[in-house]
Amino acid sequence: NFPLTLFFSISALVDLLLLVISFLMASNLVFKTVTPHPSYFLIPFLGCTLIWFVIGIQLDLYDNSKQIHSHNAFAKNSLGLFFFSLASSGFLFLITDYKYSRHFLIDVLFIHAILILLWKISLFLVEKSILKKTPPTKNVVIVGYNSQLDKLISTTYNNSFFDFKLKAVFTDENVLKKI
Question: pTM for this structure?
Fold first, then answer.
């Protein structure tokens, strides 16, 4: 098993690199050949990085293990990007001493959103394919049975993505045919 802290560190490092790439690409698009000195970007970059990590931790963007479908991971990261856009815009326009070009900010946010969504969806799909190949390690025994439990068994316990193995169902009904 891949240690969770190492996974978080790698994912956070990739997020940091994607933010650097976003700043550099937007700088190249907006300022063309006359790119400002790197110290011009230092405070905004550090502030935006901190904002992104806080939002990522708060919205649990670094843990895909609870997601079944890729559209859920997409929606969760889109919400994080929406909050990031609001917070980083406020940070850049209200807190810093100098105003950034709106075109530059829009380019940074757009490029960052595209890169993050591509990274998170591909990470989700890779993680899902790895989990499908590993045998289930969590054994589950169910006591009692009803129609809601039938739905839970079919969507969760019979799905290799969740890493559960249904060992037994104890009930007074004959449920073997249903499972």
Answer: 0.65
